[in-house]
Amino acid sequence: MEGELESLESCLERHIPPPDLAEVKRILYGGETRKLSLPAAALSSAQQRDFELQGYGFDAAAEQLRRPRIVRVGLVQNKIPLPTDTAVAVQVAALHRRIEEIVEVAAMCGVNIICFQEAWTMPFAFCTREKLPWTEFAESAEDGMTTKFCQELAKKYNMVVVSPILERDEIHGGTLWNTAVVISNSGALLGKSRKNHIPRVGDFNESTYYMEGNTGHTVFQTQFGTIAVNICFGRHHPLNWLMYSLNGAEIIFNPSATIGTLSESLWPIEARNAAIANHCFTCPINRVGTVSHHDLGHFYGSSYVAAPDGSRTPGLSRTQDGLLVVEMDLNLCRQVSDKWNFKMTGRYEMYADKLAEAVQPCFTPNVIGE
Ligand SMILES: NC(=O)NCCC(=O)O
Q1: Is 282 in contact with 256 (CB distance < 8 Å)?
Q2: Which residues form the CN hydrolase domain (predicted)?
Q3: What sign does the CA torsion over 179, 220, 223, 338 have?
Q4: Which domains does the chain have, with CATH numbers?
Q5: pLDDT digits (tens, 9 = 90+) for 88-115
Q6: How far is the CA of 205 from the centre of ligand 1 (A)?
Q7: How far is CA 197 from the centre of its chain?
Q8: 115 phi and psi, to 5 degrees?
Q9: Residue 9 catalytic?
Q10: Which one of 58, 63, 206, 211 is least enclosed by Cβ atoms within 10 Å?
């Protein structure tokens, strides 16, 4: 993408003098995340298939009573491979093919849980105000062709697959939802989690396309850990992260679609802060590129993982397709919780009472004037 900065990290590496770089990374990222050594075959496949592949690891201290709980997650960010005026079925098939080749590399890297970007089977058309053909990309979460495709991938690679799609719910009058379908590594459908908060900012007026989610803050118990999916705009809502965490999520994915002029300065902060505040891992994913027929702006990728101790990986590229492989020891969640105790000191009962008062029409703010 001409004129776009490749990544913040490549810029820092280029311009910060080496003696200062480690200290800059400590201050900005909480330290240098351990680099994963990935199989040569995976690295060369990624290069041939024209996507970036990076791997990092977060460690936890050894414990006496619990064994390490090591899991590898994969975050996928990608452009739309075909122009937006290509036939719908052809666009979906091309996206399936693209994801298939990235997931194959994820499998070579030992990924246990993989998550794709928001509404990954379509161009991000919700800002265009056009209905057709975009609503034709909606599919059943239970037996749509994308769910079937992901079930095959999950079975083949023994991988939990988080597949965020535009869902058409035929049982409820064909209602559309923005939904993450979660598929177990056995290939069985575990369930779905719908986007709770719909943006009303800039061109992101998405409420005429799909409804506010009604699945609450479901978490999914997988063989590799307890996961949740906070879709895109939910990133700006600390209570949304909190509720997934209170339900026990150790890893919260945040599949997103957002552009540079709107949110790029918020991007490194919000999900990372959620990891700190909730003693969990967070995984924000953003697509790359543009909606080819609409001048919306540049989707800046930069997917990363933040750990409960506040450290984070570098981001993927701002311009290229990519797979980020991150190894984490889930024991770190409780270790950090026992250190900082935010769940103990959070005074949730006080806020539960006060919030219940604040949402009443008769609420009067507690302000004392002179
Ligand atoms: N897809 C979506 O909710 N985008 C909103 C923009 C943002 O949250 O940065």
Answers
A1: no
A2: 71-330
A3: positive
A4: 8-345 (3.60.110.10)
A5: 999 999 999 999 999 999 999 999 999 9
A6: 9
A7: 15
A8: -130, 135
A9: no
A10: 63
Cβ of residue 289 lying under 6 Å from some atom of ligand 1: no
Contact 73, 328 (CB under 8 A): yes
Task: Decide: 284 and 268 in contact? Cβ < 8 Å.
Answer: no
**30-41 per-residue burial string, b: 16 or more CB within 10 A, e: under 16:** beebeebebeee
Out of 127, 150, 232, 283, pick the active-site residue.
Answer: 232
Atom of ligand 1 nearest to the CA of 202: 6
| Nearest Cα to Cα of residue 68 among 225, 197, 187, 256 | 225
Q: Using one digit for the tens of pLDDT, what is the confidence trace for 160-209?
A: 999 999 999 999 999 999 999 999 999 999 999 999 999 999 889 899 99
Q: Is residue 256 within 8 Å of residue 117, measured between CB atoms?
A: yes
DSSP 172: G
CA of 21 to the centre of ligand 1 (A): 32
Q: CA-to-CA distance for 253 and 250, rounded, in angstroms?
A: 10
Query: Is the CB of residue 263 below 6 angstroms from any atom belonging to ligand 1?
Result: yes
Closest CA to 197 of 206, 188, 186, 189: 206
Rg (CA), the chain: 20
Averaged over successive runs of 10 residues, the pLDDT of the chain (370 residues) comes to 85 93 92 94 98 98 98 98 96 98 98 98 92 97 98 98 98 97 98 97 92 98 98 98 98 96 96 98 96 83 98 96 98 98 97 97 96
DSSP state, 107?
H
Amino acid identity of residue 179, one-letter, is T
> Which ipTM was obtained for this model?
0.98
Give phi and psi for 181, each to the nearest 5: -95, 130
Residue 70, strand partner residues? 329
33 three-state secondary structure: coil
Single-letter residue type at 65: L
Evaluate whether 300 touches 79 at the Cβ level (below 8 Å): no
Residue 156 annotated to the active site: no
Which of 9, 25, 79, 118 is catalytic? The answer is 118
